[in-house]
Model the fold of this input.
Amino acid sequence: MLLAICFSNGTFVTTDIETGQVRGYRIPTSSGGDLDIFLGIPFAEPPLGNLRFAPPQEKKSWRPSVFNATTYGPACQQPLHFLQKYSFGKSFSDVSEDCLYLNVFAPKNVSSPDQRFPVMVWIHGGSFRYGSGSEYDGRILAAKGEVVVVTINYRLGALGFLSTDDSVTSGNQGLLDQVMALKWVNRNIQHFGGNPSQVTLFGQSAGGSAVSLHIFSRLSEGLFQAVIAQSGCALSPFSVYRPPHSIRTTTRNLALMLHCPVNSSQSIIDCLRQKSAAELSITYPQHPDMIAAFAPRVDGYFLHDTPEKLLQRGEFNHNVNVMTGFVPNESADEIPDDFNAKGGYDVTQYNSLVTSWSRRFLNSDHVRSAVTCFYTPSESDDQKNVQTYMQNNKCLYVVVLGIIHASELYYLFGTPLFHSEACPGDQNVTCPQIWTSYQHWDDLDREISETVILLWSSFAKMANRGRRPKETWRRTALKDLESRSLTIETAPGVAADQARWKSLVDASST
Done:
């Protein structure tokens, strides 16, 4: 069943929250219910001036005014050229240092208007440098999953994670923004029909790492009951700075590139506060491999130690349901350049390459052994050459090497379920095209989308000991991990292949 949502039939709706009244949309859905949409609600004061590089401050009241929550707020400052290059950034027309806004998509049960729905708070990915909550339209997930969906912004890059590794600027501002947003949800979501005692954090890639880092933070305890970490977790090599690397070195490199004095932490910060937000977002200093230049760190406040050490000591929130996973051959797109030697590798060169890569991961000795075992099979040379040959063409290796990173988000947010005519475009909110203009969605795509929405929302409904949904997730253990995991897959078909080549032809002719 397709879910049609038409803004032309929508009406304005107002609700009262802690800081004042907000006005949004109420629209009907084809399933017979209503959906309330509130966009661009500020959850903290603008982090400008002396608040740059500082923890977020609670938003002041705007009473007696009514806040107009009918348009998205700006994305946090970031280099737009990257997003535009990869086409999924075309929804970004406005970036700003003043960016701490969130969006609420709330279903309404006509027959039971006082019903409280589970809440799902989305934390976007993007290497802690790119992205926005506004990229992800929560209407389909909210309406079909019967959950309140909240998408948030948090500060990115240097503005969100720069640190002098001392009390001058401790870092993790972006994570503290997320904590502030969760506190906002805890205090206000009941006014949108959400249950503040049934909150699920979910995120992908860097967002997946972020949501699981909250499990290890004392600041976040009690603000959520479940986590879904997709293609990233707290133990990922890119999730947090680890010894011997220090973010202070990266901060110093940035200061030097922007001609700031580096004789003290205070002089660095005073100078960087005088630079434009655009300068800070596009200047990318030298930094350790396998992690963004500016990323989470152990600050003794949000995070008291590395996640693996906290896990070993049992110092984490034990009262949280966790679902995590990845797509096949995650990050395989980074490999072909390293394995593209025309003359091949001898044993010494191969071992050196594998050792270099495995050092980026936990339990590197085991990783190195596993990789060596997996990639030195006993087939004939001709058989082993087939995959390598297919990987030579980057138009092909996306298919050969596995599922595209983040491709599951189309299905999670219901992109295949949108009617093309559902959003006429004459309102302030337009139809989303999550990261792409790809239009070829068939019945199988729609079926998979409905399945993913059902499973994710079912998990959210298990976030406390309340009502059990029809489809539930049972607890799993390492001994039966393989048999208890979820795998959704399909073989490539002619129609999908034709559509892929057509999109390449169209792109090359423009």
